[in-house]
Design brief:
The protein is an alpha/beta fold. It has one domain: 3-Layer(aba) Sandwich (Rossmann fold), CATH 3.40.50.300. 34% of the residues lie in helices and 28% in strands. The protein is built from 9 helices and 12 strands. Strands 6-7-8-3-9-10 form a 6-stranded mixed sheet, with helices on both faces. A 4-stranded antiparallel sheet has the order 2-1-4-5, with helices on one face. A hairpin with a 2-residue loop joins strand 4 and strand 5. Helix 3 packs parallel to helix 5 and helix 4 runs antiparallel to helix 5. The longest helix is centred in the last third of the chain and has 18 residues. The chain is globular and about 55 Å long. The chain binds adenosine-5'-triphosphate. The site of adenosine-5'-triphosphate has 12 residues, from strand 2 and helix 1.
Length: 254
């Protein structure tokens, strides 16, 4: 379990997050939603240990995040940032292998198990065709899947993904969400994913966490979130809710 306990963030006198408390359970997929600038990336960065909270604590399985070494944190939690770093001259295989570093000893050669996890992550994210290419030569969508593969190779209990679908075409958006759903259901991961597409979120996620101006304005399951009044209160615009004829899910349109 991951506990976010009265977490607040202030930077340059600006309140990015008001005190926020909630928990992330294993075997659950959480969609983090809200307007541009509502604080989603800041929250996920704090949860990943990339931004130090002004107040409050984050606990992973009862251990305070601030007491984890970088390596111990990376054994528990993988984070995919919104702006992917430059992968330099790394090939796809080499980059995905970096995801194994928390499980390796200093200067140790990758083990057969490391290679197995890397190959599996490459297959799951459907990037086998480019495994020996330099990451810098890939398209935006291909690159996004390679970075996701690196996170999967990390074999963590928690996964924090900041807009992982942004560069993907609609087919890969669905493929990646199906894959994440599978990891949640079969491997018991707890996953937080920032999504702007409410209907994809409603189709694949279990719970919504909604931010508005740095405040937690709503947290709830799909039926309690896909309501006209709730979406109005989060986004300040009127939605019409339809029922998908095949899945019976609610679909929000403007
Ligand atoms: N280090 C910082 N110093 C000052 N302001 C910051 C800092 N980091 C973020 N902000 C501001 O905090 C607000 C929230 O930013 P954040 O990136 O968390 O929003 P977001 O919900 O992820 O937005 P988007 O959907 O556009 O990615 C924004 O107004 C941003 O400009």
């Amino acid at each position: 379990m991951m506990y976010i306990n009265k977490l607040s963030l202030i930077r340059q006198k600006k309140v990015l997050l008001q005190p926020i408390s909630f928990k992330i359970k294993p075997k659950k997929l959480y969609a983090l939603i809200g307007h541009n600038g509502s604080g989603k990336s800041s929250l996920i960065k704090a949860m990943a240990g990339e931004m130090t909270p002004t107040q409050g604590d984050i606990l992973i399985n009862e251990h305070n995040l601030k007491d984890f070494s970088a390596k111990a944190l990376a054994q528990n939690l993988a984070y995919l940032p919104q702006n992917l770093p430059d992968a330099g001259a790394f090939t796809v295989y080499e980059l995905v292998m970096l995801g194994r570093y928390p499980h390796q000893k200093w200067l140790q050669k990758p083990s057969a198990q490391d290679h197995e996890h890397v190959n599996k992550a490459i297959t799951l994210t459907q990037v086998e065709a480019f495994r020996d290419r330099q990451v810098s030569t890939l398209s935006g969508g291909e690159r996004a899947r390679v970075w996701l593969a690196m996170c999967l190779a990390q074999q963590t209990e928690f996964l924090l993904l900041d807009e992982p679908l942004a560069a993907l075409d609609v087919v890969y958006q669905v493929e990646v969400l199906k894959l994440i759903r599978q990891l949640v259901d079969q491997r018991g991961l707890g996953v937080v994913i920032i999504l702007h597409d409410l209907n994809l979120a409603a189709r694949f996620c279990d719970e919504f966490i909604a931010l508005k101006q740095g405040q937690l304005c709503h947290m709830g399951d799909v039926p309690s979130t896909m309501q006209k009044e709730v979406l109005q209160s989060i986004f300040g615009v009127d939605f019409t809710l339809l029922t998908h004829p095949d899945t019976n899910h609610k679909v929000a349109v403007i």
